[in-house]
Structure to design on (196 residues):
């Protein structure tokens, strides 16, 4: 018995699709190179600092995507400028271009680190996380503090950090001087998005 032409076309299309799927394989069924992941982690190339991320955002680094993994209510309450909200459970279904740099963060960094492993496992190469999460951003970018006993080199570096902090609406603080003179304590400035 011969099948009607539309059924033959449908059966042929299904067979072709099945063969193509078997040849293509799932992007999530790949062998994880644990030695490579361990090397990246041991070289501290798995994360960026909040200051580095702030510099990338300010410079409008091409292809940068900052991903907030926290709950929607936490994201709505406060997030890093320019961040996208993608919950951890939806992350591996999210498409990222090969040339994109992805920076992940959570509240304290744990989920950011786990998400880094997930994305590296499915083949993304330019992935980083904030090691101490949003807390690192709040401490180091939004309210950095210069130590009382800072070296001249640390004071010079702090000037650059303070400028970056102010750009994001932060409040950098310098200590009271040793001679009793009041140190600099910038008042908080309304957060500026600057198109981020």
């Amino acid at each position: 018995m011969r099948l009607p032409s539309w059924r033959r076309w449908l059966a042929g299309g299904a067979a072709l699709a099945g063969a193509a799927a078997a040849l293509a394989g799932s992007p999530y069924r790949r062998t994880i190179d644990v030695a490579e992941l361990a090397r990246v982690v041991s070289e501290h190339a798995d994360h960026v600092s909040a200051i580095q991320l702030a510099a990338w955002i300010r410079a409008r680094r091409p292809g940068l995507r900052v991903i907030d993994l926290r709950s929607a209510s936490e994201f709505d309450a406060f997030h890093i400028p320019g961040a996208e909200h993608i919950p951890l459970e939806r992350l591996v279904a999210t498409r990222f271009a090969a040339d994109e740099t992805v920076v992940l963060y959570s509240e304290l960094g744990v989920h950011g680190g786990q998400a880094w492993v997930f994305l590296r496992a499915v083949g993304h190469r330019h992935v980083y996380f904030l090691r101490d999460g949003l807390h690192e951003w709040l401490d180091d970018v939004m309210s950095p503090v210069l130590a009382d006993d800072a070296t001249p080199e640390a004071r010079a570096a702090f000037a650059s950090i303070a400028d970056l902090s102010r750009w994001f609406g932060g409040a950098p603080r310098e200590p009271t001087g040793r001679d009793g003179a009041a140190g600099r304590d910038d008042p908080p400035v309304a957060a500026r998005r600057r198109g981020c």
Helices lie at 5-24, 34-42, 50-58, 72-77, 88-91, 110-121, 133-142, 152-167. The longest strand covers residues 64-68. The two ends are 65 Å apart (CA to CA).
